[in-house]
Amino acid sequence: MKIEILGSAAGGGFPQWNCNCNMCKGVRTGSINARARTQSSIAVSSTGNAEEGWLLFNASPDILTQLKASQSLQPARQVRDTGIKSIFLLDSQIDHTTGLLMLRESDTPLKIWCTEQVREDLTTGNPLFNVLSHYCDIEWNKITPGESYNDIPGAQGIRVDVLPLTSNAPPYSPRRDKPLPGDTVGILMTDESGGKKVFYAPGLGEIEVPVWVAMQAADLILVDGTMWTDDEMQQAGISKKSARSMGHLPQSGEGGMIEYLDKLSSDTRKVLIHINNTNPILDENSEQHATLKNKGIEVSYDGMTLEI
Ligand code: MLT
Ligand code: MN
Ligand code: ZN
After folding, report:
1. How close is the Cα of 6 to the center of ligand 3, in Å?
2. Is 154 in the pocket of ligand 1 (CB under 6 A)?
3. Mean pLDDT of the chain
């Protein structure tokens, strides 16, 4: 299975347009050792060949930049072409969905896989599906948490198990601060030829038993790396929101993501994604980055490719 990290940052990207926190200022001026990043999205394929194509997870507002930078997603077989066969939305958040509008020139309806709740948000509070109905239209394929799918175009030969996650619904959702299973999902992908497994969850607020079981089964974990500390944005004086209130488990501290990743086998590859621009791990010379390195935890970057 091949995974291309198209974007590795959380909402806002890195640097964020209006932000002068230490990290954003640092990357803008070159005073820290960090690379700029676009908002999170990945492409997955079992072979990566042009005929099979790719399954895109989430459509970030930076999708056009990401597709320009990617070598694999434009097979160029005809005058209008794409390697993207379908799009799987893990939630209805702006940073994971608004890139759909940039794909409106599609010759065929966009094949979208998401839960009923995500579809509801995308036809009401964030009505992207309604807007797209005036362009290329969409073909909605319903995803049910707890179910498995092995027929998603672009991901032939990959079984996708869908796990409901405890995170949060977006501010425009009627379920904000009272999310239901299906507002945010994670996935466990199994390569049906070799049996290798990947767990992917860019928005994960709590590690409940089924999630922990999936994480233990995975050979590669690509997981929520939004914030180092729960009050990181408060400390930077830029927001009252905490990581946990937004549905993101911070990395450090008791019960944090590192504690869980540390319990996994040393053979498991552990990679953080959806990294907020306030997170000190973005500075490769930081103490926090060194802590991760010591524990064998990687920080994903745009253009990174993973293969299992
Ligand atoms: C989140 O991950 O919590 C959201 O994407 C935040 C945002 O972009 O506003
Ligand atoms: Mn986000
Ligand atoms: Zn910032």
Report:
1. 20
2. no
3. 97
